[in-house]
Design goal:
heterodimer; A: alpha+beta; Butyryl-Coa Dehydrogenase, subunit A, domain 1; 3 domains; 10 helices; 16% strand; B: alpha/beta; Rossmann fold; nine-stranded mixed β-sheet; 7 helices; 29% helix; globular; Rossmann-like_a/b/a_fold (chain B); ETF_beta_N (chain B); electron transfer activity (chain B); ETF_b (chain B); Electron transfer flavoprotein small subunit (chain B)
Chain lengths: 380, 260
């Protein structure tokens, strides 16, 4: 058994942290206040080859390992969680299905520019009536000659309206239930594809969650991803990986809160001494640090299993469940320790608390993670 | 064109503390970094490579863990890396260091040698100039801008209140300052390539063919007898009491000190 990172992974952490602290963190507050999509961050990440870390160089990636990618999401999220989810959704949800199920032509046309960071990707499964019940897809795709015609809408789509390439799920055969769902690669300029409502969110405000509308959207037949009817499987396997990414995002947020607290309790004086001297707060900090460490081990473990081609569905669900709940435990505690200051925008902990909440919801709510864990365990 | 870049791995001085008893640096647990000025030197070499075409060869002398600094340099875009590491190199002063590095430099057909102005741990700014002397080539220190015209460099050398423009023929040694450029981040792809596709070659005293008496502590004319932290001579004085008393005391003290 070996818990140490490889030299490569240590270097990735060092460099991404340096990058995140100098280039990303200083703008996090501004991005949160304005809700402006951080294109500048995306461009800088692309320049540093961060938009396709775990994909082979021949497909435009950095040729790295999965743990290095997860470390990058953690470190970017520690600086700015909105930027972290842009990276995670792009890499785990848009690039991955093309890498896994795409034809050679699809990989050349779509994966290469995505993994190079020349284009941005998104993943569209959720619908107004198909959230946790993802199988209840109402978007339809009908084959007509050499193209499919899509109709329907998707909501809460991360990078929606900003991405160039979308992985979109639609029913090709309603009679077959989940086996009737198919996946498509859709370009932003395809006729009949529109961006609808853009959500005003509580946290990760710089990231985009938008509605996608398909009105007789014309999709070339060769943009079917995988086979007809494979869509649900593609979505579920893709989300397994995505959850490790969101686990890493939650971990980065939680670590940021812990870092802020560790600094603050040494500086803030009450009753004539730094508040870190009080045992009551020391216990809080010890508990926070223990949870963050446990979350990190679960997240890295799931990533390690994926890297080593071991099953990781349950481990990814556990990592995401625990890391997101840790973020939601640690960030309000950070606000509490900061007291009145913590409730203001003068310090970043209130932002961390708002950013943390979504990690318990998207890419499968905590309740869904428990369903996944239990069904893997009980096999009933 | 071949460019040699000499770098040093140093403790991140933002994190360094001095042991109050032994008066030496506490290096344990302190992250090591590429010396900042050396990073500017490396960046400029890579920039020249991109603009004019060149091979960038990065060299350091240090303990085995200095390999990390070389890997980072490779990840930034250097082509080859050499680590001069040997027990007999240990304890070298700037003279012995420059002498050892010069032996290494002579193995290459170089056009430009880049060093950082000075290292943040020793702060001597001597190794670059001494290396140029050992090699008997011209040197320009405090370089803030470099242009190439054929076999000539046009270099801006920073002065306290301006700069001088120097034309110099290659081969030449330049020492870089932070005004020269902004070092790039190593790309993530570069990191994987640095570990998987590039090599850090180890060079020992025997490989260099140097006499062990001429390098390391034995080859160093400088002897460090002791290092001390200066004691605080004057402590601030704090006046307490009401404002009127404080002001009176303050004025009185200032008069005593002949300040007013």
């Amino acid at each position: 058994m070996d818990f140490s990172l490889t030299k490569e992974q240590q270097m990735v952490r060092k460099i991404v942290r340096e990058f995140a602290e100098k280039e990303i963190a200083p703008k996090a507050k501004e991005i949160d206040l304005t809700g402006e999509f951080p294109w500048d961050n995306v461009k800088k990440m692309a320049k540093a080859d961060m938009m396709g870390i775990p994909y082979p160089k021949e497909y435009g990636g950095a040729g790295g390992d999965y743990i290095s990618y997860i470390i990058a999401v953690e470190e970017i999220s520690r600086a700015c969680a909105a930027t972290g989810v842009i990276l995670s959704a792009h890499t785990s949800l848009a690039c991955f299905p093309i890498f896994q199920w795409g034809t050679k032509e699809q990989k050349e046309k779509y994966l290469i520019p995505l993994a190079k960071g020349e284009k941005l990707g998104a993943f569209a499964l959720t619908e107004p009536n198909a959230g946790t019940d993802a199988a209840a897809q109402q978007t339809t795709a009908v084959l007509e000659g050499d193209h499919y015609i899509l109709n329907g809408s998707k909501i809460f789509i991360t990078n929606g309206g900003k991405a160039d390439v979308y992985i979109v799920f639609a029913m090709t055969d309603k009679s077959k239930g989940t086996k009737g769902i198919s996946a498509f690669i859709i370009e932003k300029d395809f006729p009949g594809f529109y961006i609808g409502k853009v959500e005003e969110k509580m946290g990760i405000r710089g990231s985009r969650a938008a509605e996608l509308v398909f009105e007789d959207c014309v999709v070339p037949k060769e943009n079917l991803l995988g086979k007809e009817g494979e869509g649900f499987k593609i979505a579920m396997v893709t989300l397994d990986g995505g959850r490790i990414g969101i686990g890493a995002q939650a971990l980065g947020i939680a670590q940021a809160a812990l870092d802020e607290v560790t600094k603050y309790v040494k500086e803030r004086q009450q009753f004539g001494r730094p508040i870190g001297k009080f045992q009551g707060l020391q216990w809080y900090i010890a508990e926070m640090a223990t949870k963050v460490s446990a979350a990190r081990h679960l997240v890295y473990y799931a990533a390690w299993r994926k890297q080593n081609n071991l099953s990781y569905t349950m481990e990814a669900a556990m990592a995401k469940l625990f890391a997101s709940e840790t973020a939601m435990e640690v960030t309000p505690k950070a606000v509490q320790i900061f007291g009145g200051y913590g409730y203001t925008k003068d310090y970043p902990v209130e932002r961390l608390m708002r950013d943390a909440k979504i990690t318990e919801i998207y890419e499968g709510t905590s309740e869904v993670q428990k369903m996944v864990i239990a069904s893997n365990l009980l096999k009933m | 064109m071949n460019i040699l870049v000499f770098i040093k791995q140093v403790p991140d001085t933002n994190e360094v503390k001095i042991d109050p008893v032994t008066k030496t640096l506490i290096r344990e647990g302190v992250p090591s970094i590429i010396n900042p000025d050396d990073k500017n030197a490396l960046e400029e070499a890579i920039r020249i490579k991109e603009e004019y075409g060149a091979k960038v060869i990065v060299i350091t002398m240090g303990p085995p863990q200095a390999e990390t600094a070389l890997r980072e340099a490779l990840a930034m875009g250097a082509d080859e890396a050499y680590l001069l590491t040997d027990r007999v190199f240990a304890g070298a002063d700037t003279y012995a260091t420059a002498k050892t590095l010069s032996k290494m430099a002579k193995k290459f057909d170089y056009d430009i040698i880049f060093c950082g102005r000075q290292a943040i741990d020793g702060d001597t700014a001597q190794v670059g100039p001494q290396l140029a002397e050992q090699l008997n080539i011209p040197q320009v220190t405090y370089v803030k801008e470099v242009e190439i015209e054929g076999d000539t460099l046009i270099v801006k050398r920073a002065l306290e209140d301006g700069y001088e423009v120097i034309k110099v023929k290659m081969p030449v040694l330049l020492t870089a300052i932070k005004e020269l450029n902004t070092p790039r981040y190593p790309s993530i792809k570069g990191i994987f390539e640095a570990y998987r596709e590039k090599e850090v070659k180890i060079v020992t005293a025997a490989d260099l063919g140097v006499d062990p008496q001429e390098v390391g502590l034995k080859g160093s004319p400088t002897k460090v007898i002791s290092t001390t932290t200066p004691e605080t001579q004057r402590a601030g004085e704090i006046f307490t009491g009401n404002v009127k008393e404080c002001v009176q005391n303050l004025v009185q003290r200032l008069v005593e000190k002949h300040v007013i």
